[in-house]
Amino acid sequence: MGKTKWMAALGITTMLFGSLLAGCGGGEKSEKANGGSKQGEKVEVTLAGWGGNPTEQKLLKQTLDDFEKKYPNIKVKYEVIADQYMDVIKTRLAGGQGPDVFYLDAFEAPALIETGALEPLDKYVTDDFDINDFEKPMLDAFKGKDGKIYGFPKDYSTLALFYNKKMFEEAGVEVPKTWDELREVAKKLTKGKQVYGFGVAPELARLYYIAESKGGKVVTDNKASFADPKVVEALQPIVDMHLKDKSAAQPNEVGATWGGEMFGQGKAAMVIEGNWAIPFLQETFPNLEFGTAEIPTINGKKTTMAYTVAYVMNKDSKKKEAAWKLIEYLTGKEGMKTWTSKGYALPTRKSVAAELGFDKDPLRAPLVAGASYATVWQNGTNLPIITNNFNNQFVSAFLGERPLAEALKEAQKTANSEIESK
Question: Do domains 15-157+307-376 and 159-304+379-420 have the same CATH topology?
């Protein structure tokens, strides 16, 4: 699983449309069920995404094959946009050449919804689609300011604490339940520069929930506000673990490219990662004994991040009925079960997670548990600008090049200047 694309590419088909497709008779209802085509004509729906690893691609192909068997009059043309995904999508939408259905990351959703390029999906939903089955934070991520739903989430991952069982046993320490405990445990697990107690990803996407744990806000009124002293106070311990305790490091300081690799190589006893790290560790480091736990509480509160992706519909699609059938299947119970069956991505439907046993799985249960209280990686249309500026300056503070308060103050000023000049 690519660590920068937290999730890769997910059904309930209603009895009504299923019977219409399987049944006979012409007329308007039959035409509608076949995606707006006349009886017997095949409709081709384009689906665009950013791909995934071979296992994910195989699962998606299987799901799409199952869909086409259920709806023989709808053909899905799947297209992988490997590079500059959102730039390509936006350009094609603006030029009237956008796909009928495509992936949309929650991070990008507010800005694209605001452009009016997406079709609201509420009017297509029937009772047996069961919207209440979705994890609420994931569903809410694709609602517009008008309260309408513009996408249904196909999968997600939260963050959990990954810990090396052997290192914990040797150090005689327990899995930390609070962030203060984590800091103390990290010190005991650290062995010079050979093994760090904690591997850190010094970027806003991974630190957002910590940044707001003292009551400060990273974003206020769609502008950066992370120089707030409360945000600085919340993030200072991460910097101090690196500079004072010497118990934390970022992956590139030990020759790794990301936290999962750093952890797998035994250079960190703990990391905070998502579901994507589980198959990576099992396949790449098969002898590693590790466990997962919910992220330690901060100020007595449970918290984590969630990264989610939806299927959305192009408002200019000429095949909206067929496009909806595809979205309905992929994010319904049947399609979602197939897509998430190997555990590469977690199902956004609670019933599917329970059916697949992920809510009881020793490694995935902490990730599933976090879904209900997670902060989704998303906040307004300017978060990309805010994130870039935060990351640049936070790293400088993390490395000891300047005080955190000073670094974040400069980052906030630059971010808001860029926002105002848009």
Answer: yes
Q: What kind and span of H or E run contains 355?
A: helix 350-355
The residue extents of the domains of the chain are: 15-157+307-376, 159-304+379-420
Contacts of 331 (CB under 8 A, 6+ apart): 10, 11, 152, 153, 154, 310, 311, 348, 349
Indicate the CATH number of 159-304+379-420 among 3.90.1300.10, 3.40.50.11420, 3.40.980.10, 3.40.190.10. 3.40.190.10
Confidence of residue 52 (pLDDT cuts 50, 70, 90): confident
Instruction: Count CB atoms within 10 A of the CB of residue 155.
Output: 26
Is the CB of residue 214 less than 8 Å from the CB of residue 232?
Answer: no
- End-to-end distance of the chain based on CA atoms, in angstroms? 34
Among the residues of 212-255, which ranges form H helices?
229-243
- Mean pLDDT along residues 224-251: 98
Secondary structure (3-state) at 119 = coil
Q: What are the helix (H) ranges across 257-331?
A: 259-264, 277-284, 320-330
Residue 78 exposed, middle or buried by CB count within 10 Å (0-12, 13-18, 19+): middle
CB of 76 closer than 8 Å to CB of 68: yes
**pLDDT tens figures, 91-121:** 999 999 999 999 999 999 999 999 999 999 9
Enter the pTM of the model: 0.89
What is the three-class DSSP state of 167?
helix
Q: pLDDT digits over 294-350, tens only? A: 999 999 999 999 999 999 999 999 999 999 999 999 999 999 999 999 999 999 999
**Chain centre to alpha carbon of residue 310:** 10
- Containing H/E element for 375? strand 375-376
* pLDDT one-digit tens code per residue, 368-409: 999 999 999 999 999 999 999 999 999 999 999 999 999 999
Asked if CATH classification 3.30.1490.10 holds for the domain at 15-157+307-376, the reply, yes or no, is no
